[in-house]
Amino acid sequence: MGNKKGVSPLIAVIVLIAFTLIVAGMLATWASRFARETLPPTECFNIDVIIQGATYDQPTGTLNLYVKNRGTMTLTFDTLLKYQNGTITQAAQTYTVDGGQLRTFTFTGISSTIDEVTIQAQECTSVQDLIQRQWITGL
Fold first, then answer.
1. What's the pTM value of the predicted model, to 2 decimals?
2. How high is the mean pLDDT of the chain?
3. Closest Cα partner for 56 from 103, 89, 105, 96?
4. Domain of 72: which CATH number?
């Protein structure tokens, strides 16, 4: 019988460890890229906003939104106005609200056919709130 020799146990362990480290490195790179592309930016965590109420004045067409920034970061908001016929328009003015503050957003020339109002932070688009017609006092 021939003198057959296999791979030394020490060499086998070293190769196995090297293979494991290569696979772990590839998985770590993939997971890091996946998290960066799918999760919101870190600065968007622990940020929240709420529309605490709204009033509408029929004679003047003035809409007031009472917006509370429940986070600590100053945010600038865009406002989308949805009407009963399905039309959506963006209000020309933006409003900035400091962290922890309540601010009134005032819009004039708004039709009484307003159906829904949405606010969205420019800094973090996932930070938003809306109020529907039935919750707007005066409509």
1. 0.68
2. 89
3. 105
4. 2.60.40.10
User: For the chain, what percent of residues have pLDDT higher than 70?
Assistant: 92
Q: What is the number of structural domains in the chain?
A: 2
Residues 31 and 73 in one domain: no
For residue 48, give the 3-state DSSP assignment. Answer: coil
Please indicate, yes or no, whether residues 34 and 62 belong to a single structural domain of this protein: no
Instruction: Fill in the amino acid letter for 17.
Output: I
Q: Which of 65, 136, 129, 75 is nearest to 101 (CA)?
A: 75
Note the pLDDT of residue 62: 96
The two tokens of residue 100 are: 């922890």
Cα separation of 115 and 120, whole Å?
Answer: 17
Backbone angles phi, psi at 106, to 5 degrees: -115, 125
Please compute Rg for the chain using Cα positions: 28
- Note down the domain range covering 124: 45-137
What are the pLDDT digits (tens) for 48-63?
999 999 999 999 999 9
Q: Is there a contact between 91 and 81 (Cβ–Cβ < 8 Å)?
A: yes
- Listed in sequence order, the residues at least 6 apart from 50 whose beta carbon sits closer than 8 Å to its beta carbon are 67, 68, 70, 129
Q: Of all helices (H) and strands (E), which one includes residue 90?
A: strand 88-90
